[in-house]
Amino acid sequence: MPTALEKARQAPDSMKARILTAARKLFGDYGYHGVTTRMIAQEVGIDISTLHYHWGEKQDLYEAVLTDLSDEIRTKLVEIEGLVHGKPLEVRLEVAIDVMCDHLFNNSDSAHLMLFSHFAKNRITTELDAHFTRHLANIAVAMGLAPDKAHVPPQANARVLAVWNSVVNFAAGEDLFRPILNVDRQAYLAVVKETLKFILLPAFTRKAPQA
Amino acid sequence: MPTALEKARQAPDSMKARILTAARKLFGDYGYHGVTTRMIAQEVGIDISTLHYHWGEKQDLYEAVLTDLSDEIRTKLVEIEGLVHGKPLEVRLEVAIDVMCDHLFNNSDSAHLMLFSHFAKNRITTELDAHFTRHLANIAVAMGLAPDKAHVPPQANARVLAVWNSVVNFAAGEDLFRPILNVDRQAYLAVVKETLKFILLPAFTRKAPQA
DNA sequence: ATTTGATTCCATCATTTGATGGACATCATC
DNA sequence: GATGATGTCCATCAAATGATGGAATCAAAT
């Protein structure tokens, strides 16, 4: 039973998929309330009716975008886990930072969407919160911060969140941060990776935890 | 020449100040496009006309909110600098984390507004970006990452940003993160402080920087 | 008491926005 | 070629939204 979303992904040039892509970009740029159905339709070059025909209400389309995003993140985390399986924690962290940075810098929509969906008080999508919680639990286990997915102490989740947010912020904030750093795109990506490793590696890899 | 904003702050019960406070809360909750002038007026218990009479266009009111926020942050940073003057870096960081966390957790509007204003593509307020840049430069100098405010290398700004964003994220994301950690408000604040220190202190206080 | 200025609300407008009904087109199947 | 299903657009609606004009209210000064 392929969902409408899966079908859309199977045919990336289908109208339904094109609408989803445009919606994702615009919602990422301006947030839910900052985007009108007419903006999305115009981005695709179609009439509003066509948009409603494929996706129903604006709210439904937005939720489809977030579901799509959640799937994308899950896929990426699985990919990372495959890359670093069995490696020591320091390597795992380095690779995870590199891969997630590369991905989010090439898909800044994703980073923006994540911020909007997490921090806006809109917050209708309780199902996606469960996915996010699972993602965090998986990372916590992978980092050796929790014995298993079902028993993740608050401290472990908090540490994973700190790492996660750091990466997402630098990706989503490029428009503001890069002019401040006064570097080009490539240098920004390099500085961000270096900074994240500078901040995160010592905390998680030192031999004797303090206090 | 006291600005309208300063006058409003001098009389916190004035209509103008009450409108500003309500606007700040609502813009923080729902973002610029998610708030209508009617919502703000209703929150204050007045007519829309009264709102426009005092603050003009919606856009002007929003910019006043952001200016107010910028002043608040500057004040807080000065306060912190006074508290830790002359202390070693480790103490500076700990105090800064404690004070900023306490402040932002008691003023979550501020944290939300900061996120919205930094990451939304709206981004009209170029003057406030300059203030933010100055704040970062001051912190960089205070942390010994730059020789003076005029010469802050990209790496230094990036590190300050990493610290800054971490604090703001935990404050703004309480609604989503606290249920995930499954703790009450007080415990959340404690875990966040502990986590931030766990992450940040080793990076900036170790004796022999790696790589 | 009158004047003056500041403040607030009511009524209203023009535009925007989400959404829908129905006409037209395309195309596979019979 | 007729038929039905699918997809697209045009015209339009009702509600929401930003904004304003003008009347009413109030307080202080004259």
Q: Globular, elongated, flat, extended or rod-shaped: what is the shape of chain A?
A: globular
Distance between the termini of chain A: 53 Å
- CATH architecture identity of the largest domain in chain A: Orthogonal Bundle
**Biggest chain-to-chain interface with counts:** A-B, 56 and 55 residues
Order of helices and strands of chain A: HHHHHHHHHHH
CATH topology group of the largest domain in chain A = Tetracycline Repressor, domain 2
How many strands in all of chain A? 0
- Unreliable segments of 5+ consecutive residues of chain A: 1-5
Largest sheet of chain A: none
The value of Rg of chain A in angstroms is 19 Å
Please write the CATH class name of the largest domain in chain A: Mainly Alpha
What is the helical fraction of chain A, as a range of percent? over 70%
Oligomerization status of the protein chains: homodimer
Put simply, the count of helices of chain A is 11
What integer is the average pLDDT of chain A?
A: 90
